[in-house]
């Protein structure tokens, strides 16, 4: 070999490594259809030489590159099959094992495991270059290379069958599923960050207060993927139990929580948001009842509580008619409805009573009424009435309602309540 030719080969080798480095960074290494580059492999066991070039294994033969490591049970279990295939197709196929582990560790593994001690497949050890060219995060990892030096497939070990090997040798098209490892995955990162949301069956996250997020909660079907989702950000634990017992959106007043005093003290709200929580749970192909049951168990376990739903007679604030007149009925029910505060008065103009009762009077921990507010007027049309902005007493509320032929009273009614005991 002349000095000029030697310089050209060195330059070509450096260019190939640069191309491979760029390819690895931008597209996770060489892909199906690429022609393999030729470079030197060092530290080869069970071969005529300690070193070789990659093309030495593709000289008029197909090549199967098997990436493995000693702690991979599937890798070890596949060696007898690979050895059998190599012997059967020795005239048309080479199989090359590649691992990042040291020569000493590999030799010890083969010598101590009797079922593979007889196997003498060529194996590159202490490898870095092949792992750079064919990056992956899990093994076995198989690279299928045709006699023409092109990559025909990249798979896991399950695709290594005799029929597929015959197709590789005959240069037939291999319609095999491509193994695409998530190269951004890190064991130190939360798993949820690396998952395809459409393939998750169940996911739950519970966290403490998250600065910058609004206080919100709800249970609904996600329009993006059809998953049932229970979601809450920066809320107290009662909000979570309200969702878990399928009472979200039902006008569930906080008077319907029966909670041990020790629980209230242990998980009480604080100025520093210490006992404010975020919750996010996704369910795929499940019913709301089943999801709620799972959420109840998760919350009880997390907060160390015992909870259940019970039917009890409790004091409620009952809205009813006062007299035979009906001055609460809107004069023009075809107009636009509105609800707004002005000074100390809450105006309800041309609205259906069920909406403010459900969404204002009974909604949330700091709702307008300290009792479950129930409409027993029997009127389903639109009303126009006025109420005090802040509830202070029955007498105060009735002063507002008197001119509309309505009144409120406190009476017991059977209601579902959520009972929460300390565990």
Written overview of the protein:
This protein has 423 residues and is an alpha+beta fold. The chain folds into 3 domains: 3-169, Glutaredoxin (3-Layer(aba) Sandwich); 191-308, no CATH class; 314-418, no CATH class. Helices cover 26% and strands 29% of the residues. The protein is built from 10 helices and 19 strands. It has helices spanning 3-27, 73-88, 103-112, 129-133, 162-169, 237-244, 261-266, 288-303, 354-361, 394-401, and strands at residues 40-42, 44-45, 51-53, 62-67, 93-98, 123-124, 141-145, 151-155, 202-208, 216-221, 228-235, 257-259, 277-283, 305-321, 338-342, 345-352, 372-375, 382-388, 406-422. The strands form 5 sheets. It has a 6-stranded mixed beta sheet with strand order 2-6-5-4-7-8, covered by helices on one side. A 4-stranded antiparallel beta sheet has the order 9-13-11-10, covered by helices on one side. A hairpin with a 2-residue loop joins strand 15 and strand 16. Helix 6 runs antiparallel to helix 8. It is elongated. 27% of the residues are buried. Residues 1-15 and 17-27 have low confidence and may be disordered.
- Indicate how many domains the architecture comprises: 3
Summed up, the helix count is 10
Q: What would CATH call the homologous superfamily of the largest domain? A: Glutaredoxin
| Average pLDDT, all residues | 89
Quick synopsis:
With 423 residues, the protein is an alpha+beta fold.
Defining key terms:
423 residues, alpha+beta, Glutaredoxin, 4-stranded antiparallel sheet, 10 helices, 26% helix, disordered N terminus
């Amino acid at each position: 070999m002349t000095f000029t030719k030697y310089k050209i080969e060195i330059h070509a080798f450096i260019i190939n490594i640069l191309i491979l480095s760029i390819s690895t960074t931008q597209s996770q290494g060489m892909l199906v259809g690429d022609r393999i580059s030729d470079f030197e492999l060092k530290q080869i066991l069970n071969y005529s030489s300690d070193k070789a070039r990659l093309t030495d294994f593709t000289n008029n033969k197909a090549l199967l590159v098997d990436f493995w490591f000693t702690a991979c049970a599937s890798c070890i279990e596949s060696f007898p099959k690979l050895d059998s295939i190599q012997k059967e197709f020795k005239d048309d196929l080479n199989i090359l094992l590649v691992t990042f582990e040291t020569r000493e560790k590999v030799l010890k593994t083969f010598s101590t495991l009797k079922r593979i001690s007889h196997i003498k497949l060529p194996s590159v050890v202490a490898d870095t270059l092949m792992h750079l060219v064919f990056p992956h995060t899990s093994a076995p990892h198989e690279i299928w290379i045709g006699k023409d030096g092109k990559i025909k497939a990249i798979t896991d070990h399950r695709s290594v069958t005799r029929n597929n090997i015959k197709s590789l040798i005959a240069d037939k098209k291999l319609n095999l599923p491509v193994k695409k490892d998530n190269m951004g995955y890190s064991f130190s990162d939360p798993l949820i960050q690396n998952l395809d949301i459409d393939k998750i069956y169940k996911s739950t996250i519970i966290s403490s207060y998250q600065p910058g997020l609004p206080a919100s909660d709800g249970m609904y079907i996600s329009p993006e993927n059809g998953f049932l989702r229970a979601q809450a950000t920066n809320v107290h634990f009662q909000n979570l139990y309200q969702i878990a017992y399928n009472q979200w959106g039902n006008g569930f007043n906080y008077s319907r929580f029966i909670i041990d005093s020790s629980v209230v003290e242990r998980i009480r709200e604080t100025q520093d948001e210490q006992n404010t929580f975020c919750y996010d749970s996704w369910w795929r192909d499940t019913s709301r009842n089943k999801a709620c049951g799972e959420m109840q168990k998760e919350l009880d376990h997390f907060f160390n509580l015992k909870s259940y739903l019970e039917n009890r007679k409790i004091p409620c604030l009952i809205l009813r008619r006062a007299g035979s007149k009906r001055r609460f009925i809107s004069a023009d029910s075809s107009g636009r409805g509105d609800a707004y505060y002005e000074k100390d008065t809450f105006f309800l103009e041309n609205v259906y009573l069920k909406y403010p009762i459900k969404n204002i009077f009974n909604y949330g921990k700091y709702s307008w009424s300290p009792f479950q507010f129930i409409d027993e007027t029997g009127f389903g049309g639109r009303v126009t009435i006025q109420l005090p902005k802040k509830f202070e007493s029955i007498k105060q509320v009735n002063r507002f309602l008197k001119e509309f032929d309505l009144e409120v009273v406190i009476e017991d009614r059977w209601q579902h309540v959520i009972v929460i005991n300390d565990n």
